Every structure is written in structure tokens, then in C-alpha cells.
């Protein structure tokens, strides 16, 4: 079977299958061809997209597959819980103390930022954050 290698190289190209060398060299038509007698070897060459049955390379390549339709991202709903309002200074400081102790870290950081005017340093302990919030509330 006459097989054409569609990649053109100066002097052709040599490919080996199971110890058999196949020299795809320029023919009269400028196509790089080689006669491959072993049907298994021919199948292996034809399984590669740069090898075709001689004479078939001049046909138009198959039309490219259409691109898949873009996947629309699902609309994400905001599941962020409502922020807990910062405790206000009141006559009953015991309630504020309890409220700060029970808050999660992210809420405590948000309240710290409101009370102190900046985000808490990442190395501050919870107790220190709570103390500084209380101190800022005392100054108000």
C-alpha cells in the first residue's frame, strides 16, 4: 500500500516499525510516499494523522467539529449571613462581655475593625482582640 507522509522534510523522513525502516521520500508529485507492504504497519501509519493513503492528502481535510456551547455558570446566591451588629455601649456591660465571647472569629474581626479602625493583626489572640474592642468602646 502506498502511504503518503504529509509532513514534508528535505530528503524525506525515515520511520521504523518493528525493525523495518520506511523511507518516505519525495515522489514526482512532490508528495513524500513509501510503499508499506505489511498491513499491520500500514494500519499503524494510517492511525497517525500525518500519514494518509497516497493521493488522499489533496482532498480537503474534514470540517472541524463545532465548538461545544459555552456552559452558563449557575447564578450564585449570596449565602453570607447577615453581620452581627457591633455591641453598643450600654449600662449592662455583662451582656456585651458575654456577646463578644460567643461571637465567631470573623464577626469578632469585623467588630474590631469597626471599633478600632483597622483590621486585627493575624497573630492577635481572641482575648486580646476582645480587650481592645472593649477599650475602644470605653473611649467612645
Comma- or semicolon-separated keywords:
140 residues; 2 domains; 5 strands; 4 helices; 31% helix; rod-shaped; five-stranded antiparallel β-sheet; alpha+beta
Q: Number of helix segments?
A: 4
Structural class: alpha+beta
Shape: rod-shaped
β-strand amount: 15-25%
Mean pLDDT: 81
Summarize the amount of helix as a percent range. Answer: 25-40%
Please outline the major beta sheet: 5 strands, antiparallel
Give the topology string: H per helix, E per strand: EEEEHEHHH
Number of strands: 5
What is the C-alpha radius of gyration, as a whole number of Å? Answer: 38 Å
Show unreliable segments: none
Terminal Cα separation, in Å? Answer: 94 Å
Give the neighbour order of strands across the main sheet.
2-3-4-1-5
Give the total of domains. Answer: 2
Q: Explain this structure to me?
A:
With 140 residues, the protein is an alpha+beta fold. The chain folds into two domains: 2-53, no CATH class; 93-139. Helices cover 31% and strands 16% of the residues. The protein contains four helices and five strands. It has helices at 39-46, 93-102, 105-116, 126-139, and strands at 2-5, 13-17, 20-26, 32-35, 51-53. The protein has a five-stranded antiparallel sheet with strand order 2-3-4-1-5, with helices on one face. A hairpin with a 2-residue loop joins strand 2 and strand 3. Helix 3 (105-116) packs parallel to helix 4 (126-139). It is rod-shaped. The model has no long low-confidence stretch (mean pLDDT 81).
Amino acid at each position: 500500500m502506498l502511504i503518503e507522509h504529509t509532513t514534508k522534510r528535505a530528503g524525506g523522513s525515515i520511520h521504523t516499525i518493528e525493525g523495518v525502516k520506511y523511507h518516505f521520500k519525495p515522489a514526482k508529485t512532490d508528495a513524500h510516499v513509501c510503499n508499506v507492504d505489511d498491513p499491520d504497519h500500514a494500519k499503524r501509519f494510517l492511525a497517525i494523522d500525518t500519514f494518509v493513503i497516497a493521493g488522499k492528502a489533496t482532498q480537503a481535510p474534514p470540517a472541524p467539529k463545532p465548538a461545544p456551547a459555552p456552559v452558563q455558570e449557575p447564578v450564585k446566591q449570596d449565602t453570607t449571613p447577615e453581620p452581627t451588629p457591633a455591641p453598643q455601649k450600654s449600662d449592662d456591660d455583662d451582656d456585651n462581655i458575654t456577646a463578644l465571647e460567643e461571637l465567631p472569629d470573623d464577626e469578632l474581626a469585623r467588630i474590631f475593625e469597626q471599633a478600632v479602625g483597622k483590621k486585627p493583626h493575624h497573630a492577635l489572640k481572641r482575648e486580646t482582640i476582645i480587650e481592645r474592642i472593649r477599650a475602644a468602646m470605653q473611649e467612645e
